[in-house]
Every structure is written in C-alpha cells, then in structure tokens.
Amino acid sequence: MPRLIRPDELGEVYLSAEEIRARVSELGTEIARDYEGREPILVAALKTSVFFLADLCRAIPIPHAIDFIDLAGYAGRTPRSGVRLLKDLDVTIEGRDVLLVEDVVDTGLTLNYLCKQLTLRKPASLRVATLLDRPYRRLVNDLPVDYVGFTVPDEFFVGYGFDIDERWRNLPELRLAKV
Description:
six-stranded mixed β-sheet; 3 helices
C-alpha cells in the first residue's frame, strides 16, 4: 500500500498555473505556424503528458489529431531497466507529421527509444514538444526536441500531471516535492 503524502510534504510553487498557461499558448502558436497547411498527429505518453497534451491541443488553432502510447520506465522515483511498450498507437503514422508530446526530457534514453520505434513506421516528420527539459542530463543528444516549455533544474516535481505514487497530478501548478 502506498504511503499517504501529506500536503505539508509539498514544496513551494515552481511554476504557477498562469506561467504554464502562457507558455503553452506560445508553444501552440509556434506549432501552428510550423505546421501551417498540414494536419499533424500529436502523440502523448500516458499518464503525465495528458495534462500538457490537453492544454496544448486547445492552444493549436490548426486541425490536428491525437493518439496515445504507454511506456513502462519509471515506478515512483525508481528507474527500471529498459523500456516496455504497454499501449501502442491506434492509428497508422506512415506519411503523417508526428509531434511527440512529452512531459519531461531528461537523459533522452526513453525518448530515443520511442523515436527509433516510430521512425521505423515512416512518418513524414517526427518532432518533439516537451513541457520540461533538462538538457544538462542528456545521455543522447541527437533528439528532435524542437519545442521546449521550460528548462528546469534537477528537482522532483508534482502537479500538472506529475505525481508521487499517483497523487497530486491534479494540482494546476508545478510544485517542488519534499520527498
């Protein structure tokens, strides 16, 4: 049974809901400009990226589709070895412009795996939008990260989709965790 996290274990607000909303709106404008005249498919990894995806979809004023994948790679704060695909895409991406929507790009290992797998399916293009980026932790540098919300320090965050044992995803802001 997971340990209950008390509200006093949540740290200070790192990014307010308004700061996140403003930056996501800017990203939506950039993406719409770059994909003008095309209809990209936004692919998000479950579960953390869902919050970012939902807001980003509303901020992109051009037609686009969405789909989801689910990868096993982390349990709480403990990395597992390797990456497993738990849920695959429901649509074919061959010949389509694919924009991967990520919650955070850290070492790049999981994103590298995913990009290689999707490239085998022959999309017209493959790019990445991430809410949070930690480029100083990269172990893989050749990644198509074209849209970055915020470059952040090596901290553990909760809120706006990020969780501790499946809790605190619902917070509208991004907070530092004290655990």
